[in-house]
Each structure stands twice: as structure tokens, then as C-alpha cells.
Amino acid sequence: MFSKTEIFNISNLLSFLRLLSAIPLWLLLDDFRNDRILVLTITLFALVSDFLDGFFARKFKQITDFGKMIDPLADKIVTGVVVIKFFILKEIPEYLFYMIIGRDIVIFLGGMFLSAKIGKVLPSNMIGKITVCVLALLLVMIILNFEKGSFVYRAVFYSTLILIVVSFIAYLVRAFEFINKRKYESV
């Protein structure tokens, strides 16, 4: 299915490492207030590795279908681990938890369906990347114990809510466009 060169490159290594960072995050988040520096360090590694894997993939022309799958999967698992722990610890409201997890599950399963239907893996879109960045900022603010009533926290919180909805709609529209395009091309 995938060649060794498609799997084993610097970009995918960074995605694998980000995926593995979910394990210590899961273990450390129970007591993140006492392990704040370590949790923040691992979280920042995950954020920087997400940026760098895309940068290296483009720079070294290592954009592969495998990378298009492992990168968002790593993002969704790391984000999911943090969001689930913060939900359990009552750091985020229930509706935000369901919005984030629901969006990610539907996008992941929809991406698998779309890949099977059109025969290729679509890369992430810009609105999805912006959504992940703003959500990551919100999660970092929680780790740093930002005052939840502050203007900055609330601005990031509500921006996250809006972007989750907008990016979900954008992914749906894009999926239908590709399915229709494929349908008409095969006629």
C-alpha cells in the first residue's frame, strides 16, 4: 500500500512523535496544575511538530498520502486526549467537549469514506488548520490557568466555538464538491 519512502521520512517521524506524545499527556494531565511546565512543554512540542512536519514535507517534497493520514490523525488523537482529560476534570464545558470530539470523529470517518470513494487522500484545509491553532491556544490557556472570565480567554473560547462550526461546514461542503466532481467525471 505505502512504500518505505512514503512512510519513513522526517515529516512522518515528527507526526509519529506527536502521536506518541499523547501517552505522557494522558498520564500527566490528571495533575496538570502540579506538572504544568512538563505538560506545557509536551503540548508545545506537539504544536511545533505539527508546524514542522508540514514545513519539512513541503521543503523536502515529502508530501505523501501516508503523511496526509498520519498528520491529522496525530492531531486528532493528541487534541482528543487533552480535551477528554479537561472534560473529565471539568475544565471545559460539556457542549465544547461534544463539539470538538464530534467534529473530529465525523471529519476523520468522513475523510476515510471520501478517500475510499474518490481514490485519494485530501489534505487538511486552511480553515481546519486555523481551527486547530485557536483550539490549541485555548487548551494552552487552560494549562496556564488563565482566568476564564477574562476578555482574552472568552475571546479565544468563543472564537473556538465559531471556528469549530465553520470548519465543520467547510469540510462538508468540500467533501460534497469532491464527490460530485468524481461522479460527473466518471460519466
Please describe what this structure looks like.
- The structure is a single chain.
- The protein has one domain (4-185): Four Helix Bundle (Hemerythrin (Met), subunit A), CATH 1.20.120.
- The protein contains 8 helices and no strands.
- Helix content is 79%, strand content 0%.
- The protein is globular, with a radius of gyration of 17 Å.
- The longest helix is centred in the C-terminal third of the chain and has 35 residues, at 151-185.
- It is mostly helical.
Structural key phrases:
187 residues; mainly alpha; Four Helix Bundle (Hemerythrin (Met), subunit A); 8 helices; 79% helix; 0% strand; globular
Present the secondary structure layout.
Layout: H1 4-7, H2 10-20, H3 22-28, H4 36-59, H5 65-88, H6 94-118, H7 126-143, H8 151-185
Measured as a percent range, the helix fraction is over 70%
Structural class: mainly alpha
Range of strand content? under 5%
**Main pleated sheet:** none
- What's the shape? globular
User: What is the CATH architecture descriptor?
Assistant: Up-down Bundle
The CATH topology is given as Four Helix Bundle (Hemerythrin (Met), subunit A)
The run of helices and strands is HHHHHHHH
**CATH-level-4 superfamily name:** CDP-alcohol phosphotransferase transmembrane (TM) domain
How many domains, as an integer? 1
Cα-based radius of gyration, to the nearest Å: 17 Å
Number of helices: 8
**Secondary structure: number of strands:** 0
Chain-averaged pLDDT: 91
